[in-house]
Amino acid sequence: MLKVENVTKYYGSFKAVDNLSFTVGDGEIFGLLGVNGAGKTTTFRMIIGLLDKTEGQITLNGKPINYDVTDKIGFLTEERSLLTKLTVKEQVIYYGVLKGMKESEILEKLDVWLKRFNIEDYKERKIKELSKGNQQKVQFITAIINSPKLLILDEPFSGLDPINVQLFMDVIKELKRQGTSIIFSSHRMEHVEMFCEKLVVLVHGKSVLAGELKQIKKEYRKKNIHIEASDVDIKKLKEIKGVVDVVENESEIVVKIESDENVNDVFAFIKNCKEVTKFVVEDATLNEIFLDKVGVVYEN
Fold it and tell me: Which CATH class is domain 221-283?
C-alpha cells in the first residue's frame, strides 16, 4: 500500500503541492488528475524519490521511499525517456539492471512482453527506428519489467491506436489482479472512468475533489437524460424547471438537469412527443464533473 500523508512541496516560495494526502491499496487503480501545472508530476517525482518533500510523509508498505524501495516501483512518464540510439534489448536491460535485476531474468521477461505486445521482431532494432506507438510499448515494458509493487502511469496511451489502447488496458487490469498498486493519470476522463476506483483532482497543488468514483458521481446531483424522439420542441424543453441545457446530437437529444428530482417533469413533456424510443437517465460523466469542479476553483 502506498500512503501519501500531508505532503507539501515548495520550490522557493512557490507551493507546488499543498498538504496532499491519499492512499493506494494493493490491487487498486487510483486516479491522480489535474490540468497542466496542477502538481501531478511533482507528486510523482516525490513518490519515486527524485524530489524531497518539504513536509509530510510517503511510504510504500510502511517503509519510507529509498533506493531499496524504488526497485519495486515502475514509472511510465508522459515524456519519452528512451535512449534512441540503443536497441530495444539494450534499453530494457539498462532499465532492468537499474532496478537490481539480473540480465538473464530481464531477457527472459523481455521475450514474454515483446510477444505480448506483438513487437518480438523489433528486439534488435534501435529505438529511433520504431514508430511512436511501438516506442510507447517499449517504454511500458521498461516500467513493468521488474514486476513492480507500485506502478505509476502518466498518460500511458499516448501515441496508441484503439487496438493497442485495448492491449495496454488488458495488461493494466492483469497487473491489478496480481496485486500491483497503480496510479493512473490522464487527460482522457473516459479512460479514468474505465479504470479508477478512487481519485484525487488537483488544482494549484491542492486537492479539490477526492474519494471513490462511484460516490463522487452519486453525490454530484446533475444528471443527463438521453432521449430519442421526434417532434420535440427544444425551446419548450429548455424552459422546464431544472433543465440546465439541451444538446442536440445526430442520433439523440441530451438533456442536462440539476438533479434526479427533475426527471419526472422532463418525462411528462417527452411522453407527449412522437416516436419516443429512448429515455435513459445517467449520471454526469467524470469529464463534466471535472470541468465543473476545476472551473469553479479557477474562477474563484
Answer: alpha beta
